Amino acid sequence: MLKVPHVTSYLTEHFAEDAFGTLAGYEKKGGYAAARKALTEMAPGDVIELVKASGLQGRGGAGFNTGLKWSFMPADSDVPKYLVCNADESEPGSFKDRILLERSPHQLLEGILIAAYAVGACTTFIYIRGEYSFPADQVERAVAEAYDQGHLGPNVLGSGFRHDVVVHRGAGAYICGEETGLLESLEGKKGQPRKKPPFPAQVGAFGMPTTVNNVETFCHVPYIVNRGAEWFRGFGTEASPGTTLFGVSGHVVKPGLFELPLGTPLSEIVFEHAGGIAGGRKVKGVIPGGMSMPILPAGQLDVPMANESLRERGTMLGTGGIMVMDETTCMVRVGCVISYFFRDESCGQCTQCREGTGWLNKIMNRIERGAGQSEDLGVLLDIAAKMEGQTICAFADAAAWPVQGLLRHFRADFEEHVRLGRCPFTASFEL
Amino acid sequence: MISTGTRSKIEAEMERYPQKRGALLPALYLVQAEHGYVSSDTVRELAEIMGLHPVEVMEVVTFYNLFFDRPQPRHHASVCTNLPCSLRGARVLLAQLEEHVGSKVGEPTDDGRLVLGHEECLGACAFAPMMRVDDAYHEDLDLEHAKSILDALE
Ligand SMILES: Cc1cc2nc3c(=O)[nH]c(=O)nc-3n(C[C@H](O)[C@H](O)[C@H](O)COP(=O)(O)O)c2cc1C
Ligand code: SF4
Question: How far apart are alpha carbons B73 and B101 in whole angstroms?
């Protein structure tokens, strides 16, 4: 099936055309003009300043300012510097990077070239999750085309800049999406995250200065170079400029991908673009940004989808993966599914995370079975609090936040299970 | 034994990385494509080729879901059971497929044709329910369609 967003803007405008995935088709739409401009008319520092001025925030989950991140790379070092494209996309609810890889691999390569030039990287490693066989094939094909046409290699686009790209396939581990887990994996090791500092800009891949960015982040860059920071700021909010790809899943009429400005109200995405709740039912809760982000109840869907507003509601944009749950949904079952995932994927280095994720899952299951006790709710919150901010990487926080969100907004569901000694939601999705 | 053809592909991979060890994941994929899994003999052989200690290879084999340290059935069919897929009936589908093939999740069929599994999110959330059969995604599934995909496997 052709994976085309239901709503498009600049990033996905040509996604319905298969030719856009080829080098010739991409160039016909103006592709590689931005890379030509950056590599031949701009100094690396100017590119960084431009991207800083655009306010582009990373689309991999943390929302860090991209230009600022690039400026952390040492400018005057004589060691090799690397760029890494994070295409490990494994955050449940997220599938935008996959569509970008499948439909527009050259758009990604162009963004990579501009970024590589800006930070002075000699090689980019594109780390693609192992399950994405078809997307990785598309990227490999595009890389081969780019080498063939001199868009990669010793003299990129005739500019004198040298750049190589290595496509690296992961092998099935969520934690390799965390940037230092990814770097370990790239080096041929278990994907166990590193202690920071040092940050990757100092000591990254193979011990060298490295910048890690998400697939979508790179894809915005050519448009900023072509059309300018002011143009980019014409989309989105003051603090969160640009469009982004919202992936909507769950109980909606029209699940899919939607390219919309940051700051679009969540309710508009769910009820207008995604067609509202299937079967004429009512909405109960929505996870706004991938499974690590706390859920919002039906009454708070007016929130603009940008970090500055979502933070006020105790949650975050994350990867823009929106999961919609209707009124039949048992929120304890949701807790069981979420906590199982984190228990399964913890890399096990930190005690709080290894033990905490196990206990959260056990207690969730016990409550769902009807064997929960009234103290259990407090114990869940206590464990979650002890996992936050205590570990080598943010995975433990990501495991704690959804539990806190569920208990903040749907405590009654949990209390009802404990009181009745069974799950009262007979029409809910099956476990 | 790792064939000479695979061996030279592994050596070519080692050239692509600033340090040879970076080629370990690609090398394991190559070995697995040849043998179907990574045996302890292969681990030792690969370690030798790459200048690593066998345990450095073994711990990587066991860390990642897509590497296998024992012989596998001919096909892997895994249904995603993460939240977006579960909300759209993935767990019911998986139970029905268990019944259809006559084997539970994780237990290969008697003829060694197939093992059913469940996966965490595979990035197909809007096209749920879905399953990954070997390297291919099958999306927007219903029971009949899913059964026919499994029945067509040799
Ligand atoms: C547990 C965990 C998993 C992550 N998974 C991903 C991922 O799959 N893809 C991604 O781009 N970033 C992921 N990140 C964020 C990366 O660590 C990193 O911040 C990001 O790739 C930086 O790119 P950006 O600045 O362009 O957003 C993850 C972070 C954590 C803590
Ligand atoms: S927080 Fe969890 S996933 Fe991250 S390093 Fe510690 S144990 Fe591993």
Answer: 14
